[in-house]
Design goal:
Rossmann fold; six-stranded mixed sheet; 10 helices; 13 strands
Length: about 280
């Protein structure tokens, strides 16, 4: 049996798979984050706090750069089945780069099995989809069945953002400037959700940490869980993530709730203290 390989860009807040999935290969390809004159590579060595501090102090505009096609192609050049997972194509060119890399490999090796999944999301939602992929691989499903199921999973899974600042998202044109400024002003948390198109749509605002947690729990209740798992990614705010976890367990009982720190890209856009929840 050929070994499966899963590849994600670093919008995914995972660095490794669980021990039970050690037979499946996994790697992430880093974004680059340009702050002032510094270039931060979004790998395991990135200092998120230093990157955020530099950005907060810098008068120059910061920017992010997605992985190029050749980086994806190097990761795709395997004998076994390969599945890639990218941040929403509506937010980045990473998906297009991965698709171009797929065509590059298939031109030389037309029998290879390579798929690219547009998660229509980021961070914790990508984690849920990758964990679903691992489950399907353990169950022994064929490549086409796995890919079809993962596309369905990406369509059904939800994501919600609770951010105390929308500064970087506004500068990058990811949210409306006026709406973003109002949402993150005077102690308010701006609550946004992932749209069906993979964009960020503002849902409302909440005052204070307790109000934000109540808003998130109520929103998740109204939307409904897509499965029995929730993942919370936090940007240097584990305390709030744990409080939200407790509230979600109280509201939903037997659901599993995992907490992960955001990697560099999600930290840049969620900014300090931000929470991203997938369910």
């Amino acid at each position: 049996m050929m070994k499966w390989h899963l590849v994600a860009d670093s919008s995914c807040d995972l660095h490794a798979l669980s021990p039970e999935d050690s037979a499946t290969g996994f790697e992430t390809i880093p974004f680059h984050i340009h702050v002032g004159r510094r270039d931060y590579i979004d790998d395991a060595a990135i200092d998120v706090d230093a990157m955020l501090t530099d950005n907060e102090k810098s008068a120059e505009a910061a920017a992010t750069a997605c992985p190029g096609a050749q980086q994806w192609a190097d990761a795709f050049d395997r004998d076994g089945p390969v599945i890639a997972f990218t941040i929403s194509s509506a937010l980045s060119g990473s998906y297009n780069s991965a698709c171009a890399a797929r065509e590059m490999i298939l031109e030389e090796h037309p029998d290879r099995q390579i798929a690219v999944i547009d998660t229509k999301a980021t961070g914790p939602e990508t984690v849920l989809i990758i964990r679903r992929a691992c489950q399907l691989i353990r169950e022994g499903l064929a490549f086409d069945r796995v890919v079809s199921d993962l596309n369905d999973c990406a369509a059904k899974t939800h994501i919600i953002f609770a951010l105390s600042s929308y500064h970087n998202l506004i500068k990058a044109g990811r949210v409306n400037r006026l709406v973003g400024l109002v949402a993150g002003h005077l102690g308010f948390w701006g609550i946004g959700v992932g749209s069906d198109e993979g964009k960020i749509a503002m849902r409302g605002k909440a005052r204070g940490e307790k109000g934000m947690i109540r808003f998130l729990v109520n929103e998740i209740k109204q939307t409904g869980l897509a499965g029995k798992a929730i993942v919370i990614s936090h940007c240097l705010n584990e305390k709030a993530a744990q409080l939200l976890r407790d509230a979600l367990l109280a509201a939903f009982g037997s659901v599993s709730v995992d907490i992960l720190p955001t990697r560099g890209l999600d930290s840049f856009y969620a900014e300090r203290n931000g929470l991203i929840v997938a369910y």
